[in-house]
């Protein structure tokens, strides 16, 4: 069967089937996999296996015993095993979910204060704790759904701090798990947040900006149904960033305008962690989009606004200082770029973010070509002595 043949059965385009086959976001969406299973007349368990080895085992079982046999072999015993462990495990209630939600908010806040490098282990331990509760705990359907939603958000938080720490493979894994948990719980807000972050990973480190646009658009659709103004704004500005990588200025400006309109809206509900999304951060992300388009004057205005509005979050303010310096250097304003780095060198050189330190090293590599500039020599004096 060709990709076009399968697409016709599912009412999907051929490129959508290609993405599904090549580990695209939809391959972690149980609703999509269920449609594929029905179209191919195979059990969902074959498509939703946790590993390639497990998938091979399930396929062999299916071809030997047929759908009824594999449902018993794979589904029945597993359900009994989970039910047995849940009945003997710890009791999980609403207060446990509330504590987890507060931990999510705290991780987001700490990341803005200190950077992701110091938070990877904390976030990973929180994810393992939630997984243990889901696997072995005893809880009502209502609590189970809330716990799964909280798990999705914690996995997204873990993905973000791992991304900030330069551990992109780990980030991708957490985002995939988060997307699946959000789908299972039917939580559109959690799904939107996961896709927003996965979008960032696609167009920055994966060099797949078109996929980034698609993920951001999917996030906006989910956020439009359930999310509040800040969630919608964040999804739209991530789309603008991905479009700036593609080089589509008209579409990028449209997404920027949509993001700022959404931020000013009062419709919908934002989760607590987005209370830490100040307007200054939206300005900074807008500045990045214009910087990538080569509009350095416009980028400077937005990045300076971001720096001025994030004094309460040291790591976040440092990030925009680094990006402003990068923008100046790209524009050829070498002395101005070095001036920003020199003025803020103590914070810039020590920020606990591998991602930002990598950017800083790239800026330094570019500055080596301009050692005739006095500010460059002053910067490297600090750089070598740090």
Automatic annotation (TrEMBL):
Domain of life: Bacteria
Boundaries of every HTH cro/C1-type domain copy: 1-47
InterPro entries the record matches: Cro/C1-type_HTH, Lambda_DNA-bd_dom_sf, TPR-like_helical_dom_sf
Molecular functions per Gene Ontology: DNA binding
Name listed for the protein in its UniProt record: HTH cro/C1-type domain-containing protein
